[in-house]
Design goal:
Order of helices and strands: EEHEHHEEHEEHHEHEHHHH
Structural class: alpha/beta
Distance between the termini: 27 Å
Shape: globular
Strand content: 15-25%
CATH architecture: Alpha-Beta Complex
Radius of gyration: 17 Å
CATH class: Alpha Beta
Length: 251
């Protein structure tokens, strides 16, 4: 089974995270496949790239089972964060408009992936959670730059430090998503959004995204490197394995 699926039709590329039994949690295979899919999509010069998850879940974040089974979780997370961050940078620098479709859950790195996209449509019953502090890690996937710059430092501190669920009604108010709709209306609203986007001139998009990146996400590449360094250092410490063990005991 392909852990990431890609289709291309009428200048729209759809990339689907495809580990539905794991709520599309990011393991090494999925992260490498996601980056490859984005690279291939970028070469085809689509007008729109859609990123979504199979099985009515967007992404449950990093695969804790892989972390727990690794003899060297620090190195493993370093490698995985590197692949994820390459995807984040590509999303921000591609000439396509990138739309995230959030259903079910967007947790940890899954939240960061959704926020890297230009627009986000969400099902009304979905939830977001930064998640990292529950296992004693700092954010990666751009979470510690996208969230505070979108909603402010105090609210970011709250979401990270308390690690609470965010409903889509709150996410809409905070500016973390653009459109919230009933689950059975997600595809219809996605199609309408793509139609509206493509009705307008597309030649501005590369320059528009460059302006957004320089005004709002300046320093992203350097910040991602720091995120990767910190999360890898924390994952290499023995305490991380203890927290993972405690997490699995509670399940």
């Amino acid at each position: 089974m392909d852990v990431v699926k890609k289709s291309f039709e009428d200048q729209v590329c759809t990339i689907t995270l495809n580990r539905p039994d794991k709520k599309n949690a990011m393991d090494s295979e999925l992260l490498l496949a996601l980056y490859d899919a984005l690279l291939e999509a970028d070469k085809q010069h689509p007008a729109v790239i859609v990123i979504r998850g199979a099985g009515k879940a967007f992404c449950a974040g990093g695969d804790l089972v892989e972390f727990n089974e690794s003899d060297n979780p620090g190195n493993r997370i370093d490698t995985m964060a590197d692949a994820l961050h390459k995807s984040i940078l590509l999303i921000r620098n591609t000439t396509a408009i990138v739309i995230a479709v959030v259903e079910g859950v967007a947790v940890g790195a899954g939240l960061g992936l959704s926020l890297a996209c230009d627009l986000t449509i969400a099902g009304a019953n979905a939830i977001m959670n930064m998640g990292y502090r529950r296992i004693g890690l700092t954010p990666d996937g751009g979470g510690s730059i996208f969230v505070p710059r979108l909603i402010g430092a105090k609210r970011f501190n709250e979401l990270y430090l308390l690690s609470r669920n965010v409903t889509m009604a709150e996410a809409k108010d905070l500016g973390l998503v653009n459109l919230v709709c009933d689950e059975d209306q997600v595809d219809q609203n996605l199609a309408a959004m793509i139609k509206d986007l493509r009705a307008l001139p597309m030649e501005t998009i590369k320059r528009f995204k460059d302006l957004v990146n320089n005004s709002l996400f300046f320093g992203l590449d350097t910040h991602l490197d720091r995120e990767k360094l910190y999360v890898s250092e924390l994952a290499a410490a023995p305490l991380f394995k203890e927290r993972l063990a405690a997490f699995f005991r509670k399940r």
